[in-house]
Design goal:
Length: 299
Protein backbone atom coordinates (compact mmCIF):
# COMPACT_ATOMS: atom_id res chain seq x y z
CA UNK A 1 0.00 0.00 0.00
CA UNK A 2 1.34 3.39 -0.94
CA UNK A 3 0.10 6.97 -1.05
CA UNK A 4 0.17 8.04 -4.70
CA UNK A 5 -1.73 11.23 -5.51
CA UNK A 6 -4.26 13.86 -4.60
CA UNK A 7 -7.07 15.00 -6.87
CA UNK A 8 -8.05 18.65 -6.39
CA UNK A 9 -10.65 20.95 -7.91
CA UNK A 10 -9.36 24.52 -8.06
CA UNK A 11 -10.67 27.80 -9.51
CA UNK A 12 -7.91 28.83 -11.93
CA UNK A 13 -6.62 25.31 -12.59
CA UNK A 14 -4.21 26.40 -15.33
CA UNK A 15 -2.56 28.99 -13.07
CA UNK A 16 -2.31 26.46 -10.23
CA UNK A 17 -0.70 23.93 -12.59
CA UNK A 18 1.70 26.62 -13.85
CA UNK A 19 2.78 27.38 -10.26
CA UNK A 20 3.37 23.69 -9.55
CA UNK A 21 5.43 23.17 -12.71
CA UNK A 22 7.26 26.49 -13.14
CA UNK A 23 7.99 27.36 -9.51
CA UNK A 24 7.27 24.44 -7.17
CA UNK A 25 9.20 22.10 -9.47
CA UNK A 26 6.89 19.41 -10.86
CA UNK A 27 6.74 18.07 -14.41
CA UNK A 28 3.61 18.06 -16.57
CA UNK A 29 2.32 14.51 -17.11
CA UNK A 30 -0.87 15.02 -19.11
CA UNK A 31 -3.87 17.25 -19.65
CA UNK A 32 -7.10 15.29 -20.07
CA UNK A 33 -10.54 16.87 -20.36
CA UNK A 34 -9.19 20.07 -18.83
CA UNK A 35 -7.60 18.30 -15.84
CA UNK A 36 -3.88 18.97 -15.38
CA UNK A 37 -1.87 15.96 -14.18
CA UNK A 38 1.52 16.77 -12.66
CA UNK A 39 4.22 14.29 -11.82
CA UNK A 40 7.55 13.91 -10.04
CA UNK A 41 10.69 11.97 -10.91
CA UNK A 42 9.48 8.60 -9.57
CA UNK A 43 7.31 5.89 -11.08
CA UNK A 44 3.93 7.35 -10.14
CA UNK A 45 2.20 8.54 -13.33
CA UNK A 46 1.09 11.69 -11.51
CA UNK A 47 1.08 13.11 -7.99
CA UNK A 48 -1.42 15.96 -8.29
CA UNK A 49 -4.50 16.29 -10.50
CA UNK A 50 -5.94 19.79 -10.84
CA UNK A 51 -9.40 20.19 -12.29
CA UNK A 52 -11.13 23.50 -12.93
CA UNK A 53 -14.09 24.35 -10.70
CA UNK A 54 -15.95 27.30 -9.19
CA UNK A 55 -14.76 26.40 -5.70
CA UNK A 56 -11.70 24.59 -4.39
CA UNK A 57 -12.21 21.14 -2.88
CA UNK A 58 -10.57 17.73 -2.55
CA UNK A 59 -12.07 15.07 -4.78
CA UNK A 60 -9.87 12.26 -3.40
CA UNK A 61 -6.55 11.20 -1.97
CA UNK A 62 -5.39 8.08 -3.81
CA UNK A 63 -3.49 5.08 -2.49
CA UNK A 64 -2.32 2.22 -4.71
CA UNK A 65 -2.27 -1.35 -3.53
CA UNK A 66 -2.21 -4.97 -4.66
CA UNK A 67 -5.33 -6.93 -5.64
CA UNK A 68 -4.95 -8.96 -2.42
CA UNK A 69 -4.83 -5.76 -0.34
CA UNK A 70 -7.89 -4.48 -2.20
CA UNK A 71 -9.78 -7.69 -1.39
CA UNK A 72 -8.94 -7.27 2.29
CA UNK A 73 -10.01 -3.63 2.22
CA UNK A 74 -13.29 -4.47 0.51
CA UNK A 75 -14.30 -6.78 3.36
CA UNK A 76 -13.21 -4.46 6.16
CA UNK A 77 -14.75 -1.34 4.60
CA UNK A 78 -18.05 -3.15 3.95
CA UNK A 79 -18.11 -4.30 7.58
CA UNK A 80 -17.27 -0.81 8.85
CA UNK A 81 -20.45 0.83 7.58
CA UNK A 82 -18.46 3.74 6.11
CA UNK A 83 -19.81 5.26 2.90
CA UNK A 84 -17.98 3.70 -0.04
CA UNK A 85 -18.38 2.88 -3.70
CA UNK A 86 -16.54 0.86 -6.32
CA UNK A 87 -14.25 3.02 -8.46
CA UNK A 88 -12.63 2.73 -11.86
CA UNK A 89 -9.93 5.30 -12.52
CA UNK A 90 -9.75 7.25 -15.77
CA UNK A 91 -6.70 9.10 -14.50
CA UNK A 92 -3.22 8.29 -15.84
CA UNK A 93 -2.25 4.86 -14.52
CA UNK A 94 -5.84 3.59 -14.60
CA UNK A 95 -6.70 0.89 -12.09
CA UNK A 96 -9.82 -0.07 -10.21
CA UNK A 97 -10.87 -0.32 -6.60
CA UNK A 98 -13.00 1.78 -4.31
CA UNK A 99 -13.47 5.18 -2.77
CA UNK A 100 -14.19 5.48 0.95
CA UNK A 101 -15.57 8.38 2.97
CA UNK A 102 -13.99 8.60 6.42
CA UNK A 103 -16.16 9.70 9.39
CA UNK A 104 -15.68 13.47 8.86
CA UNK A 105 -15.80 13.38 5.09
CA UNK A 106 -12.19 12.79 4.01
CA UNK A 107 -12.21 10.81 0.76
CA UNK A 108 -9.61 8.07 0.31
CA UNK A 109 -9.49 6.16 -2.99
CA UNK A 110 -7.76 2.79 -3.24
CA UNK A 111 -6.68 1.44 -6.63
CA UNK A 112 -5.15 -1.87 -7.67
CA UNK A 113 -3.76 -2.93 -11.06
CA UNK A 114 -2.47 0.57 -11.73
CA UNK A 115 0.26 1.25 -14.26
CA UNK A 116 3.52 2.89 -13.34
CA UNK A 117 5.46 5.39 -15.41
CA UNK A 118 9.15 5.37 -16.32
CA UNK A 119 11.13 7.52 -13.88
CA UNK A 120 12.45 10.80 -15.25
CA UNK A 121 15.58 12.82 -14.41
CA UNK A 122 15.39 16.06 -12.50
CA UNK A 123 17.11 16.77 -9.20
CA UNK A 124 14.57 19.45 -8.33
CA UNK A 125 11.51 17.34 -9.07
CA UNK A 126 9.71 15.83 -6.09
CA UNK A 127 10.19 12.07 -6.08
CA UNK A 128 6.68 11.29 -4.84
CA UNK A 129 4.07 12.41 -2.32
CA UNK A 130 5.13 11.49 1.18
CA UNK A 131 1.99 12.46 3.15
CA UNK A 132 -1.37 14.15 2.95
CA UNK A 133 -2.57 15.50 6.31
CA UNK A 134 -6.27 15.92 7.07
CA UNK A 135 -7.87 18.27 9.60
CA UNK A 136 -10.51 16.74 11.83
CA UNK A 137 -12.88 17.78 14.58
CA UNK A 138 -12.13 14.47 16.31
CA UNK A 139 -8.87 13.09 14.95
CA UNK A 140 -9.16 9.96 17.11
CA UNK A 141 -12.45 8.91 15.50
CA UNK A 142 -10.99 9.24 12.01
CA UNK A 143 -7.76 7.50 13.06
CA UNK A 144 -9.80 4.64 14.58
CA UNK A 145 -11.63 4.24 11.26
CA UNK A 146 -8.33 4.31 9.35
CA UNK A 147 -7.04 1.50 11.57
CA UNK A 148 -10.14 -0.68 11.67
CA UNK A 149 -11.55 -0.18 8.16
CA UNK A 150 -8.43 0.60 6.13
CA UNK A 151 -5.86 -1.47 8.02
CA UNK A 152 -3.65 1.59 8.60
CA UNK A 153 -1.71 1.85 11.87
CA UNK A 154 -1.18 4.73 14.25
CA UNK A 155 2.55 5.53 14.61
CA UNK A 156 2.45 8.44 17.05
CA UNK A 157 0.11 10.79 18.82
CA UNK A 158 1.05 14.36 19.68
CA UNK A 159 -0.91 17.20 21.21
CA UNK A 160 -1.81 18.29 17.67
CA UNK A 161 -1.98 15.19 15.49
CA UNK A 162 -2.42 11.46 15.09
CA UNK A 163 0.21 10.14 12.66
CA UNK A 164 -0.86 7.11 10.64
CA UNK A 165 1.10 4.77 8.36
CA UNK A 166 0.13 2.34 5.61
CA UNK A 167 3.62 0.88 5.05
CA UNK A 168 7.04 1.25 6.69
CA UNK A 169 7.12 5.03 6.23
CA UNK A 170 6.37 6.65 9.63
CA UNK A 171 3.28 8.35 8.24
CA UNK A 172 1.51 8.63 4.91
CA UNK A 173 -1.33 10.57 6.46
CA UNK A 174 -2.09 12.25 9.76
CA UNK A 175 -5.24 13.61 11.32
CA UNK A 176 -4.84 17.02 12.92
CA UNK A 177 -6.88 17.98 15.99
CA UNK A 178 -8.07 21.11 14.22
CA UNK A 179 -11.69 21.50 15.27
CA UNK A 180 -12.86 21.37 11.65
CA UNK A 181 -12.61 18.96 8.72
CA UNK A 182 -10.49 19.93 5.69
CA UNK A 183 -7.21 19.39 3.90
CA UNK A 184 -4.33 20.39 6.18
CA UNK A 185 -1.44 20.05 3.71
CA UNK A 186 0.19 18.00 0.97
CA UNK A 187 3.85 16.99 1.39
CA UNK A 188 6.17 16.27 -1.51
CA UNK A 189 9.19 14.05 -0.92
CA UNK A 190 12.35 15.62 -2.29
CA UNK A 191 15.44 13.55 -3.13
CA UNK A 192 17.53 14.95 -0.27
CA UNK A 193 17.96 17.92 2.03
CA UNK A 194 19.74 19.91 -0.68
CA UNK A 195 16.68 19.57 -2.89
CA UNK A 196 14.51 20.93 -0.06
CA UNK A 197 16.89 23.87 0.44
CA UNK A 198 17.10 24.60 -3.29
CA UNK A 199 13.29 24.49 -3.36
CA UNK A 200 13.12 27.14 -0.61
CA UNK A 201 15.54 29.26 -2.65
CA UNK A 202 13.51 28.78 -5.81
CA UNK A 203 10.37 30.05 -4.09
CA UNK A 204 12.30 32.98 -2.58
CA UNK A 205 13.36 33.86 -6.15
CA UNK A 206 9.63 34.29 -6.80
CA UNK A 207 9.01 36.37 -3.70
CA UNK A 208 7.60 33.53 -1.57
CA UNK A 209 8.82 32.90 1.98
CA UNK A 210 8.10 29.70 3.94
CA UNK A 211 5.08 29.85 6.23
CA UNK A 212 7.14 27.54 8.45
CA UNK A 213 10.55 26.04 7.98
CA UNK A 214 13.11 24.89 7.22
CA UNK A 215 12.97 22.58 10.18
CA UNK A 216 12.99 18.95 11.29
CA UNK A 217 9.91 17.46 12.91
CA UNK A 218 9.78 15.26 16.00
CA UNK A 219 7.50 12.35 14.93
CA UNK A 220 8.80 10.98 11.63
CA UNK A 221 11.97 13.11 11.93
CA UNK A 222 11.40 14.51 8.43
CA UNK A 223 12.83 17.79 7.20
CA UNK A 224 10.13 20.29 6.23
CA UNK A 225 9.42 23.65 4.62
CA UNK A 226 5.76 24.73 4.30
CA UNK A 227 4.45 27.27 1.82
CA UNK A 228 0.99 28.58 1.02
CA UNK A 229 0.54 28.05 -2.71
CA UNK A 230 -1.02 30.87 -4.75
CA UNK A 231 -4.02 28.60 -5.35
CA UNK A 232 -4.61 28.45 -1.62
CA UNK A 233 -3.42 25.05 -0.40
CA UNK A 234 -0.58 24.43 2.04
CA UNK A 235 2.23 22.51 0.33
CA UNK A 236 5.41 21.14 1.87
CA UNK A 237 8.87 20.20 0.69
CA UNK A 238 9.91 17.22 2.81
CA UNK A 239 12.63 14.60 2.94
CA UNK A 240 14.07 11.84 5.08
CA UNK A 241 10.92 10.63 6.82
CA UNK A 242 11.76 7.85 9.25
CA UNK A 243 11.16 4.19 8.33
CA UNK A 244 9.60 2.26 11.19
CA UNK A 245 9.44 -1.47 12.03
CA UNK A 246 6.19 -3.40 12.40
CA UNK A 247 6.54 -3.34 16.17
CA UNK A 248 7.13 0.45 16.38
CA UNK A 249 5.99 1.62 19.80
CA UNK A 250 3.10 4.06 19.44
CA UNK A 251 4.22 7.35 20.94
CA UNK A 252 1.93 9.45 23.15
CA UNK A 253 1.73 13.26 23.44
CA UNK A 254 3.94 13.16 26.54
CA UNK A 255 6.67 11.46 24.48
CA UNK A 256 6.74 14.43 22.08
CA UNK A 257 7.23 17.57 24.09
CA UNK A 258 9.54 20.48 23.24
CA UNK A 259 11.56 22.86 25.40
CA UNK A 260 10.01 26.30 25.89
CA UNK A 261 9.94 28.22 22.61
CA UNK A 262 10.64 25.21 20.40
CA UNK A 263 8.28 23.36 18.06
CA UNK A 264 10.81 21.43 15.95
CA UNK A 265 14.26 19.92 16.32
CA UNK A 266 16.21 22.83 14.81
CA UNK A 267 14.46 25.96 16.06
CA UNK A 268 15.52 27.96 13.00
CA UNK A 269 12.24 29.42 11.84
CA UNK A 270 9.04 31.10 12.93
CA UNK A 271 5.66 29.62 12.10
CA UNK A 272 2.96 31.85 10.58
CA UNK A 273 0.10 30.21 12.49
CA UNK A 274 -2.61 32.63 11.32
CA UNK A 275 -1.82 32.31 7.61
CA UNK A 276 -1.48 28.54 7.84
CA UNK A 277 -4.72 28.10 9.74
CA UNK A 278 -6.60 30.18 7.16
CA UNK A 279 -5.09 28.20 4.26
CA UNK A 280 -5.82 24.89 5.98
CA UNK A 281 -9.54 25.69 5.83
CA UNK A 282 -9.72 26.41 2.09
CA UNK A 283 -10.00 22.86 0.74
CA UNK A 284 -12.86 20.82 2.12
CA UNK A 285 -13.97 17.42 0.85
CA UNK A 286 -16.85 16.97 -1.52
CA UNK A 287 -18.42 13.59 -2.17
CA UNK A 288 -19.95 13.62 -5.63
CA UNK A 289 -20.80 9.92 -5.70
CA UNK A 290 -23.55 7.81 -4.23
CA UNK A 291 -22.56 5.17 -1.69
CA UNK A 292 -22.95 1.67 -3.10
CA UNK A 293 -22.36 -1.82 -1.72
CA UNK A 294 -18.82 -2.86 -2.60
CA UNK A 295 -20.02 -6.35 -3.53
CA UNK A 296 -21.66 -4.87 -6.63
CA UNK A 297 -18.31 -3.89 -8.12
CA UNK A 298 -18.60 -4.20 -11.86
CA UNK A 299 -14.87 -4.26 -12.54
FE1 LIG B 1 3.93 17.53 6.75
Amino acid sequence: MKLRSIELVVPGAAAAAAFLTDIWGMAPAAVRCGTHYLRGSGTDPYLVAIEEGDEGFVRSTTFVCSEAELDGLRGRVAASGLNAAPAVSNDPGGGHGMIVELPEGALFRFLASTEQADPIDGRDLPVQLTHVVINAKDAEVTADAAESALGFRVSDRTKGMVFVRCNDSHHSTAFARAGFSSLNHVAFEMADMDAVMRGIGRLRDHGMAPAWGPGRHGPGANVFAYFIAPFGAVVEFSTAVEKVPDDYRVGAPEDWTWPEGRIDQWGLSDKDNNALRAAEQRFRFRREWTPQPLETATV
